[in-house]
Amino acid sequence: MDDATDGSSAGSTAPLQRLSAAVASGDWTEATDAVRDGWYELAADHADEARAILDRVPVSVLRAHPLLAMEFGILLNQLRFQRFRALRFFVMAVRSARSTRTHNLSPVDRLLIRSSESAAFRLLGRTELSVSAARGAMEVAHALSDEERASITELPRILAVLGMSFHYGDHHEEALHAASLGLAEASLTPPSNGMSALALLAGIHALRGDLDEARSYIEHGRTDLWTDRQRNGYSGIFYRVAETRLAIERFDASRARRELDSLVAMTKGRHTTEHWALVAETDALIELVAGSPGHGLARLDEAVERRGGDGGARRARARLARIRSLLHLSLSNPDGAAAVLARDLSDGPAARIERARVALSLGQTGTALNDLRAVSGAHLSTRQSAEAAAIDAAVLLRISATPRRTAAVQRLGALLDRSGLRLPLALLPDPDLARVVAALEAEGYAHVAAELPKRALIGDVEPDGLLSKRELAVLEQLMHTSSIAQIAAANVVSANTVKSQLRSIYRKLGVSNREDAIAVTVERHLLASVD
């Protein structure tokens, strides 16, 4: 659990010395006390030494003392090639904490274990269990006495861990609540122990499009209460992501790249950080804004490959589906974008908005409106509302004038004016962007489009370059057989029709034979079933 390392300045060696002496003498109660008191300091400042000490503790002891097992798992998780071993100790700690032998745990220990249980389940991809444990931990935290609360020096970090679980479980209001409580408990003596909470608040608000809120936390994070090590360390990942997202909203790719590259996590520990998908998504978005979608797609694939099995997990694919779809659209490949969404993103408001964007690129205005209609009334973030409004206005401007068209443009202008968001406009196809900007200017909202880049981020798609549904059906059969007769039988058409359709497919794909057509199909994700 990378949230353990808050990147504070090096602390005293007292917790480490206590732990070493306790383990040497076999005093497991004292060892547990030392870990409890130095929970985050041991992981942040003395990881190598603490890991070596706990490695000498018998497994039977770790099983009976969940705090020791969980701390050992946290320390092992910092090593790229020890992650699976770390998971074993996370599970051991959770099982031990749930056993009847630990029913006399103090509220403080129970809070530590339940928060770590939440983080462990989050790391294992068990989102629902992670959220459930986080809610249990919040109940324990709310029930603490003033004396118990004062005894937990790392309460801000614990609450940030819980906020992280809520965030990844898509319970953003609970995440903001937990992080706000954590920041309120933070020390006012630099370096404060509240960076994890502050960063989470800044990051969630930036990701959801609440830019003014994000800026207020970023400005607070720039004060002397925090250090560069905190801002650039593991606990500062969401802080730097927030800075990066604000730069992206200004279409300042160079500034965004500098902000993201300042993260220690990009050069140390990037293989183990659970936030790798967030960093990879942001990294690819920078390339999109910089006008290098092909490079962005390559970097995204590299990040996924580096993660091994985690990169191909359903949760990771879903997290990266939106940016992957946008990159394909930028490369004028709406078929690939549609295939990615169909394969990786389950139905819901986010999926509907992205499908509407793809439908717009394909000229399927009816489909786009149907997808947008499905999200009306849903609880959307500020960013989602602005993106849906931008697509809605673009679709209505493509069809005959209606009273709703003017209302849609006015609503979009008001949303962009109030939120300060600009990216939702830039993520429209080039011809639509020009129409929407002109309509906004006519309604008195010229200022919301004044800083847009000169070139659109989403490429225009030539209608003649799109594969028809019949051609896609032929292409799917071509992936499995080269027999014209078999393809014709499968599609209930004549052999001559198949030959004509193949000539059209080859022309549109820019190839001259079956092998190259298959290669392009796979590369561009033209068929979700093949992927």
What attributes does this structure have?
531 residues, mainly alpha, Serine Threonine Protein Phosphatase 5, Tetratricopeptide repeat, Arc Repressor Mutant, subunit A, 3 domains, globular, disordered N terminus
Verbal overview:
With about 525 residues, the chain is mainly α. It has 3 domains: about 220 residues, Tetratricopeptide repeat domain (Serine Threonine Protein Phosphatase 5, Tetratricopeptide repeat); about 120 residues; about 55 residues, Arc Repressor Mutant, subunit A. Helix content is about 70%, strand content about 0%. The chain is globular and about 85 Å long. The N terminus is likely disordered.
Count of spatially separate domains: 3
Helix content: 55-70%
How much β-strand is present in the residues?
Answer: under 5%
CATH superfamily of the largest domain: Tetratricopeptide repeat domain
Outline the secondary-structure elements.
Blueprint: H1 14-25, H2 28-37, H3 39-45, H4 47-54, H5 59-64, H6 66-77, H7 83-98, H8 107-123, H9 127-143, H10 146-151, H11 155-168, H12 172-184, H13 195-207, H14 211-221, H15 228-232, H16 237-249, H17 253-261, H18 276-289, H19 293-306, H20 314-330, H21 334-344, H22 349-361, H23 365-375, H24 382-398, H25 403-419, H26 423-426, H27 430-442, H28 469-478, H29 484-491, H30 495-509, H31 514-523
